Amino acid sequence: MYDFAYHKPSSVADAVALLGDSEAKALAGGQTFIPVLKQRLNKPSAVVDLSGLGLSGITVTATTVTIGATTTHITVANSAEVKKAIPGLANLASWIGDVAVRYRGTIGGSLANNDPTACYPSAALALGATIKTNTREIAADDFFQGMFTTALEPGEIIVSVSFPIPQASAYEKFRNPASRYAMVGVFVAKTASGVRVAVTGASQGGVFRHTAFETALSANFSAGALDGIATPADGLNSDIHGSAAYRAHLVGVMAKRAVAAAA
Amino acid sequence: MPQVTLTVNGKTASVEVEGRTLLVEVLRDKLGLTGTHVGCDTSQCGACVVHVDGKAVKSCTMLALQANGSSVTTIEGLAAADGTLHPMQEAFRENHALQCGFCTPGMVMSAIDIVTTHPQGLTEAEIRHLLEGNLCRCTGYHNIVKAVAAAWPVMHGKEAVAAE
Hints:
The complex is a heterodimer of chains A (about 260) and B (about 160).
Chain A: E1 5-7, H1 12-18, E2 24-27, H2 33-38, E3 46-49, E4 58-60, E5 64-68, H3 73-78, H4 80-85, H5 87-94, H6 99-104, H7 107-113, H8 120-127, E6 130-133, E7 137-139, H9 140-143, E8 158-164, E9 168-175, E10 182-191, E11 194-200, E12 208-209, H10 211-219, H11 244-262
Parallel strand pairs in A: 1-3, 2-3
Antiparallel strand pairs in A: 4-5, 5-8, 6-7, 6-8, 9-10, 10-11, 11-12
Chain B: E1 3-8, E2 11-16, H1 23-30, E3 49-52, E4 55-58, E5 71-73, H2 87-94, H3 104-116, H4 124-130, H5 142-155
Parallel strand pairs in B: 1-5
Antiparallel strand pairs in B: 1-2, 3-4, 3-5
């Protein structure tokens, strides 16, 4: 990898100042970013390590689970409070990557990167999360703007993510057999105001809501309610691991499994 | 150049690094601890797993500077001073859980983490799931899984169930 200056600020303000350099990049857990650097796909002048900002931790109230940006996947997966409040979210975190990835990878890093095959964006979108940054709060519906693209401005840092607690939720994914990323992942959340379904891994445009599934499940929250509802293959990923039509089929299968797990 | 200070296998080490220097490069190239292997260099194979502050992490996917001030344990730090193997190393030997041995250091470090973090017990399915981040191209994993299961009662101070 190309060399860079390494900084580890101890306050959000200092991190934002260091990221004012347009060639600087933020480093959270590094489980995607360091491999990217190793392949020389990115050449930052400086890397700003966010691990010293005190942004880790989980707070659960009667209505909301709030997770600090640098909280690791394993912390979310093992949290008794998250397991109780939003079991689908803890379950999602429990099979991201592998053990070593879960020890280092963070929720803020996953959301900021918005990899089209990442797991967390589906939970944020399906649960209607709010992403809090150093300057503002962004609704998940406005946050994800296509593959590797978010509403974050240059130098803007995620501070925490708040998830409203649903009545029921579950996540199912079909993993790439070698690398274990989500070829198709579906997060289903049942709330008092209806059901939300978010799909990751499948689309060239990154995570998206499946409104046809949402309508059917809001009327009847059962796997059978999805029978006969096709997922269009247009715009879905097609590669050596699976065609767009195959992924479209998997969206239905994973959604049914998620509903069955949540119901 | 930046300086990084680590406690590696109980000894303090302080070395000069670049921003881009990986933890595995410090261990292998600066400290001569070549037991930690680089298999894929794409963060997929787990041969480079070491413990940083007690957690199993991929040393090829962590900057040396991120580990500054940490305590690192490598495969060289497991056996006792008199050469007595760690129970996991012994279980790997007893169960023939290696053939070429390239993945073994990372396997053993991951396996110790898995057993340590599951004091309530481990099923075979759980062991297989938790070892997903470590690739072995020789053994078909079967004996590795057996070794992890065999080490669990020893590491938790419980009597081993006789192997069938």
